[in-house]
Design goal:
Elements lengths: L6 H14 L8 E6 L2 E6 L8 E5 L2 H13 L7 E6 L18 E4 L8 H7 L11 H13 L10 H21 L3 H4 L2 H16 L7 H8 L8 H6 E7 L5 E7 L2 H21 L5 H12 L7 H10 L27 E4 L15 E4 L10 E6 L22 E9 L8 H14 L3 H4 L3 E9 L13
Parallel strand pairs: 1-4, 4-5, 8-9, 11-12
Antiparallel strand pairs: 1-2, 2-3, 6-7, 10-11
Helix pairs in contact: 4-5, 8-10, 10-11, 11-12
């Protein structure tokens, strides 16, 4: 899980409590490795008091555990928790995991668990950050718990809880939903300063790790880029397997990285002012991903290169983007769609780039709405600017980045996308009437060209 979500103080403590109270004391021993020490907790037995022993020698503790687990007579039933930290960078290699189940609490940094996984063929479990509801409940609990069960709820107490939540919510919007940094003012200030420094350090030469943040597909890095700017989001690969994606810790971080990259792009634009338009467009897409479509130069260059793939029975049809002028080709703004746990219902708007908040979004990496259909390459007449008439012709343009040859979207993924859009936009039922769909494939130069139109 993401550093700062409470793997030690929340998940680790909860696991320990549950194990010590498991099925009437079925376990004899629970060992908890943390930092450069280990606690060996012996459960109470009839006539024998329980005990806790602290060991400051990891190797000696491992030998003790091996001895307890492998005794032919009177062997102990146990469980091991390993809490990875700066002092304990990977689990001790000699733990008897074939006798005692073991849980390792760690960040997504593969250096902490890669060798462990290879040796044991273990399973990864991904833990999401808390959502706002969890943190709001904790803020209330902090205020209510010390008062006891018999304390009354006064207006003054309600205001105190409300004010504290406003402060915490503002911190969440800045640094992300991490209890370690939003529940304490000093920790928040320190973290906010670290984030500012990390973003200010972005340059044209070190941009690569930050580009993944804008594309919502960054990998976890063993540096401050991951630890301060992104969070792990659990996603399902298929019915039986799961993995994770890294997305910005907050919309504010995403926006600030985007602004910094825009500044870098502007500086690069000056250097590229004599370069061909398609070259400038390529640089824009590399730096900003689909946010580059907010530059009319980029959009115009891409549209100029579009090859419309005819559907069966179509003749002489062009993209809905083909006849837009330079002003109309520029997207006005960009917005992120919320996750299922923390979503804000929106209204459909023309010329706004909508981007998913997670990396496993079906079919598209972004999309926007334009007025008119692509019939004969001409734009349908618009009765009023940005009219919301449900019958007005309109097109949703899906953007899909492909490293290899793009494939036609499967029906199941398209249905999943439509279900997401119905949840994300309150006016989808009306707005989607008289709407046509287009997909723009943005490919790597070495990828095989798409030859078949998708049936959307």
């Amino acid at each position: 899980g993401t550093p700062g979500i409470g793997k030690s103080f929340a998940c680790g403590s909860f696991l320990l409590h549950q194990l010590l109270h498991y099925d009437g004391g079925l376990l004899d021993v629970v060992a908890y490795f943390i930092r450069d020490s280990a606690y060996v907790i012996h459960n109470a037995r009839p006539g024998v008091a329980g005990s806790v022993v602290l060991y400051d020698n990891i190797d000696a503790t491992v030998n003790l555990i091996v001895d307890m687990a492998r005794k032919k007579k009177g062997h102990k039933r146990g469980f091991i928790i390993v809490d990875i930290s700066q002092e304990l960078k990977e689990p001790p290699s000699g733990l008897p995991t074939n006798f005692w189940p073991t849980v390792v609490l760690t960040s997504p940094d593969v250096r902490h668990y890669e060798q462990w996984m290879k040796d044991r063929n273990d399973k990864l479990i991904y833990v999401n950050c808390d959502d706002e509801r969890d943190l709001k409940a904790f803020v209330a609990w902090q205020k209510l718990f010390p008062l006891g069960q018999d304390a009354g709820i006064t207006d003054e107490l309600c205001k105190e809880i409300s004010d504290e939540w406003k402060r915490v919510k503002q911190r969440i919007e800045q640094v992300g939903p991490l209890p370690r940094f939003v529940l304490n003012a000093d920790s928040y200030e320190s973290r906010h300063s670290q984030i500012c420094n990390a973003i200010s350090d972005i340059t044209l030469n070190n941009k690569a790790p930050y580009m993944g943040i804008l594309r919502m597909n960054s990998e976890w890095q063993s540096d401050h880029v991951s630890h301060k700017l992104v969070k792990l989001v659990r996603v399902r690969e298929d019915l039986n397997n799961e993995t994770y994606r890294c997305v910005p810790l907050s919309s504010d971080i995403h926006e600030r990285v985007k602004v910094k990259m825009l500044q870098i792009l502007k500086d690069a634009w000056v250097l590229l002012r004599l370069a061909p338009s398609d070259c400038r467009a390529a640089v824009g897409l590399e730096l900003l991903s689909f946010d580059a479509f907010r530059y009319s130069d980029v959009t115009e260059a891409v549209v100029d290169k579009l090859v419309y793939l005819q559907r069966d029975g179509e003749t002489c049809k062009k993209s809905a983007l083909a006849k837009f002028n330079e002003k109309q080709l520029r997207l006005q703004s960009s917005e992120c769609l919320g996750t299922a746990e923390n979503s804000t219902v929106k209204e459909c708007k023309y010329y706004v780039l909508y981007k998913p908040s997670v990396g496993n979004f079906p079919v598209a990496d972004g999309f926007f709405f334009v007025e008119g259909h692509g019939t004969s390459g001409e734009r349908a007449a618009v009765r009023a600017a940005h009219s919301r008439d449900a019958h007005q012709p309109k097109t949703i343009v899906l953007l899909q980045a492909t490293k290899t040859c793009a494939t036609t979207p499967r029906t199941g993924k398209l249905l999943k996308l439509k279900a997401i859009l119905r949840r994300a936009f309150r006016d989808w039922a009306d707005f989607s009437k008289n709407m046509r769909w287009e997909i723009v494939y943005v490919q790597h130069p070495d990828a095989a060209t798409v030859q078949e139109a998708a049936e959307v």
